[in-house]
Amino acid sequence: MPDPGHDSSHDPRLTPARGDLAAKYLEGKVQAERFVTGEEFEIFEAIAPVREQPSSNAMLMTQALRGERVTVYDRNGEGWAWGQLGGDGYVGWLPDAALMKPSAAPTHMVSALRTFAFPGPSIKLPPADTLVMGSKIAVAREDGSFAVTREGQYLPKVHLAPLGHREPDFVAVAERFVGTPYLWGGKSSFGIDCSGLVQVSLTSAGTGCPRDSDMQQAGLGRLLEPRERSNLQRGDLVFWKGHVAIVRDGSTVIHANAHHMATVVEPTEPAIARIKQAGSEVVAIKRL
After folding, report:
1. What pTM does this model have?
2. In sequence order, what are the residues at sequence separation of 6 or more whose Cβ sits closer than 8 angstroms to the Cβ of residue 147?
């Protein structure tokens, strides 16, 4: 994921400020023609793209999942809204169609890689939607093996966890994504990138995690000294410029990467050698 080398105090990925307008809370900190309070919305689509520009051809920077809150500061009148995600603070353009006014506070999240939302209490009905890990939903009641949302969708209870649930081992969560196609900006089992894999896995274990690999390198864990690098532990994070991998054990890492166009488990030393040959050295190893 990107490593644009921005001044972190006003990183445009995390700062809702443009020349013409900025978030009210930034008044006095940034220059803008006007400052707006913003309006809170909820992500209604299963997965909503967050793009660099208000165009379906613009670069996918990240994704927002069902139930996530977003503060919208601008709408361009052509189907796009500019705002900041509540989860990790990412700023970008989202499709208006993906947004709705906030409904009930979520009670559960999807803990399976993917699950179906059925229109009624039967797995033989054609699914109305496919939700992905980390999606937040408000369960109104239960019906047998189903949890029923306020909108009347039926989800298998076995694929849900209470909102505060924490997975015991974030690396085990990452391992479940093996085989997922690589997608720049992706953060689901339909497509994921290197830092998305780290973020989704750590978040499911209850650890707050920024979105991009340079932010993760700056904000997570403690830096290992060179002498400690010979004894890597499960859960250590290996960083290159613009890339990150998760240490799985003494000899393997797991990472979403464009070389394999997938999330793979790879022997650590050959992976480091391959990436070095492609022109990138390890810049840091962090222990959480």
Report:
1. 0.95
2. 108, 137, 139, 141, 154, 155, 156, 157, 160
